[in-house]
Amino acid sequence: MYKYDNYDQAIVDARVAEFRDQVNRRMAGEITEDQFKPLRLMNGLYLQLHAYMLRVAIPYGTLDSRQMRMLAHIARKYDRDYGHFTTRQNIQYNWIKLEECADLLEELASVEMHAIQTSGNCIRNISSDQYAGAAADEVADPRPWAELLRQWSTFHPEFSYLPRKFKIAVIASPEDRAAMRLHDIGLELVKQDGELGARVFVGGGMGRTPMIAPEINPFVKADDLLSYIEACLRVYNRYGRRDNIYKARIKILVHEIGADEYRRQVAEEFAHVKTLGIDPPLAELERISAFFAAPAFDAADVEPDRSDPDFAVWLDQNVKPHKQAGYAIVNISLKPIGGIPGDASSAQIDVMADLAEKYSFDELRVTHAQNIVLPHVAKRDLYTVWQALREADLANANLDLISDIIACPGLDYCSLANARSIPIAQKIATRFADAERQRDVGELKLKISGCINACGHHHAGHIGILGVDKKGVENYQLTLGGSGAEDVSIGKITGPGFDEDGIVDAVEKAVEKYRELREGDERFVDTYRRVGMDPFKEAIYG
Amino acid sequence: MKLLTGNELGSGAVTWWTGSGWSIHVEDAVDVGEGGESILHAEEGARRVNAPYIIDAIPTPEGPRPAHIKDRVRALGPTVRPDLTLKPADPAAGDWII
Ligand code: HEM
Ligand code: SF4
C-alpha cells in the first residue's frame, strides 16, 4: 500500500482547511450557491434528490483495513449507516450534511483519504484491476503506475479545467477486469523484448455516445509514459469541444479528427513535452514500487476441505486463483438477492475490514462491478473467511452471474435520472434467485443505468438496461451483446422499451432463448454473437 | 397548482414552502400561484432555502401531489429504502410515487 509522505498529507490537510473556510462563508451568506457550487464539486460534494451526496476517492480501488473502518465510521457518524460502492471503484454517501462535511473530510484525511477530483472537469480517480498484485496473468503490478499517475494528475494545474471530465484506467493483464477500453485513456502494461511499457488507448467512453478506445500507440516505454500522456491531454485540452457539453469528451475529438490524425498530433506534442523533462527519474518509480512489494507469503499449498456443499459452491464461484501457491483471491459479493447492488452497511464494512486485517495482509479492493475483493487469502483460511462472511450476509456465491448486477443509483437518489435502476436489479435478481438456474445460465453481465450518462455501464452489459422517460413514466430499453472485458463491445438495442415488469420478463425470455440455442460452453454473449439479434428479438417481442 | 421546493442549506433536506416558512412534508406545501418567483428570491437570499425551484402539482384530498415523479421521490425518499423515507411505518407509501 502506498503511504502518504509529508507533502501528500500537507496538501490534503490544506485542502480540508480551505474547504472548511468555504463552507463557513457559504453558511454565513458571504458567497452565493452559484459561487459555491464549483467549490463543493471540486471536493466531491453534490446536491442530489434527498440531500448532499459525497463521493470519496479510493485510489485504484485499493485500501487497507484502517481506511475501510474509517468508511464504516463515516457511514455511522455522518450518514445513515451505509455507503454505496460505485463502478469507478469509489464510495458514495447519500445523506451528508454540508455543516458537517469539513469535519468528515478531516477524519478522512487522518487515514490518507479525500474526495478531491471526484467531480468536475479534471482527471478523476485512476481505476485499475482489482486483482493487481495477485493475478496470475499480470506482467507487472499496475498499481505503482496508477499511483504515479495519481500524483501527476492531483492538482495538475494545466488539467484542472479540461473541456470535460477525464477518466484513466491502468491494467497489466491480457484479461481486462477494469473496462479499460471504455475510458478516456486506457493503459495496458506490456513487455516488449523484456522491457516494460504500455499500450495506449485513447477516446473510449460510455455516456450518450459510447465508443471503444482505438489504440494510439502499441508501445510507449516506461520512462516516456508521463510525457506521452501529458501530450495526449494537451492535444485534447487545446482542441476538445468546449462549445458543446455533449461533444466535449475526448472520444468525440478522436472520432472527429480520426485516430491517425490524433496520433500524429500527439507525436508532435510529445516531441516537445519530452524536452521539458517531466518524466520522473527511475528512482522515484522504484520508491513508489517499494510500497507495493508482495506481502510475506508463507502459507503451505493446501486444498480446502470441500465437504460443506454451500462452501464448495462459493469456492467455485467467488474464489479465483492467485499467482502465489497456497493463496487465493476472494470476491465478496455486494449483491444479495433482492438487495441494493453496491450498498454495504457500516457493520458489513467493518466485517470486511476485520477479515482483511486478519486474513488478507490488511488489503481490500473495490471492483468496478461494485463488489469487494480480499486479494491475498491463504487457502487454509478460506473456510473461516467464508463462515465470517456468511454471518454478515456477504457470502453470496454469484460472482459474474446474472444476479451480480451493476446498477447506478437511478431515480431513487440521482437528480439526473429518468427512471429507477435499483428496483429493476432487485426484481431481476429475485426472478433468478434459484442458485442452480443462475449457475446453469453461467457468466452473464447485466448492467443498468437510470439515464443516458451510463454510470451503470449498460452499454457494456451482455444484457444492458437503460431507463428512459416516456411522457413522465419510467420506461426501460434493452440492449444485448455489450462487453467491458477484453472482448469489448457496445450492446445493441433490441427494439421498443418496456415498463418495469415488462423488462424483467424480456430479460427472462432472452435468457431462456440463450439456454435453448447455446452450443458447448458458450456464454450468453457468445451465443448472441454467433446467432445475432433476430432469434432474441423474436423471443422477446414474439 | 404550483409549489415551491428546495433543500435546506445546512442539512440538505428537501423542503416545501408552507406560506409562512418551510416544511419537510409535502402535505404542508401551499399553492404559490404566480407569486413563486419573488418568494424564491427572497428566501434564497436569506439562506432559508438552497437551490429552490417551482414545480407543478395536483391537489388531492391527502395534499399536493407533485406532477413529476422526480419530485415525488424527493417528497417521500428512496423507494428502495422504505426505512429511510418520511413514512417508514407505512410499507405501501412508495405506491404514491408511481
Ligand atoms: C448520483 C450522482 C451521480 C451523478 C450526478 C453522475 C453524473 C454523471 C454524468 C453527468 C455522466 C456523463 C458525463 C459525460 O458523458 O460527460 C456520468 C457518467 C458516468 N458516471 Fe456518473 N453520476 C453519478 C453517480 C455515479 C455512480 C454512483 C457511478 C458508479 C456506480 C458513476 C459512474 C459513472 C460512469 C462509469 C460514467 C460513464 C463515464 C463515461 O462516459 O465513460 N456515476 N455520471
Ligand atoms: S446513469 Fe444517470 S441516473 Fe444513473 S447515476 Fe448516472 S447520472 Fe444518475
Number of helices of chain A: 17
Please tell me what the overall shape of chain B is: globular
Gap from first CA to last CA of chain A: 54 Å
User: Helical residue percent of chain A?
Assistant: 25-40%
Integer count of domains of chain B: 1
Descriptive report:
- The complex is a heterodimer of chains A (542) and B (98).
- With 542 residues, chain A is of the alpha+beta class.
- Chain A is 37% helix and 18% strand.
- Chain A has helices at residues 6-27, 33-41, 65-78, 98-109, 143-153, 225-239, 250-257, 259-273, 282-291, 309-318, 346-359, 382-391, 422-431, 435-441, 500-517, 524-531, 534-541, and strands at residues 45-47, 52-56, 62-64, 82-85, 91-96, 127-128, 168-171, 185-192, 195-202, 215-221, 319-321, 327-332, 343-345, 363-366, 372-378, 406-407, 446-449, 463-470, 473-480, 492-493.
- A 5-stranded antiparallel sheet of chain A has the order 1-2-5-4-13.
- In chain A, strand 1 (45-47) and strand 2 (52-56) form a beta hairpin.
- The longest helix of chain A has 22 residues, at 6-27.
- Chain B has one domain (2-88).
- Chain B contains 2 helices and 5 strands, in the order βββαββα.
- Chain B has helices at residues 36-45, 69-76; strands spanning 2-7, 14-17, 22-23, 50-60, 63-66.
- The model of chain B has no long low-confidence stretch (mean pLDDT 96).
- The A-B interface holds A 26-27, 29, 33, 47, 49-52, 80, 94-99, 340, 411-413, 415, 417, 420, 422-423, 426, 472-474 and B 7, 9-14, 44, 47, 50-51, 67-70, 73-74, 77-81, 84, 98.
- The site of protoporphyrin IX containing FE (HEM) has 23 residues of chain A, from loops.
Topology summary:
The complex is a heterodimer of chains A (542) and B (98).
Chain A: H1 6-27, H2 33-41, E1 45-47, E2 52-56, E3 62-64, H3 65-78, E4 82-85, E5 91-96, H4 98-109, E6 127-128, H5 143-153, E7 168-171, E8 185-192, E9 195-202, E10 215-221, H6 225-239, H7 250-257, H8 259-273, H9 282-291, H10 309-318, E11 319-321, E12 327-332, E13 343-345, H11 346-359, E14 363-366, E15 372-378, H12 382-391, E16 406-407, H13 422-431, H14 435-441, E17 446-449, E18 463-470, E19 473-480, E20 492-493, H15 500-517, H16 524-531, H17 534-541
Parallel strand pairs in A: 6-7, 7-8, 16-17, 17-18
Antiparallel strand pairs in A: 1-2, 2-5, 3-14, 4-5, 4-13, 8-9, 9-10, 11-12, 12-15, 14-15, 18-19, 19-20
Chain B: E1 2-7, E2 14-17, E3 22-23, H1 36-45, E4 50-60, E5 63-66, H2 69-76
Antiparallel strand pairs in B: 1-2, 1-4, 2-3, 4-5
The structure holds protoporphyrin IX containing FE and iron/sulfur cluster.
The site of protoporphyrin IX containing FE has 23 residues of chain A, from loops.
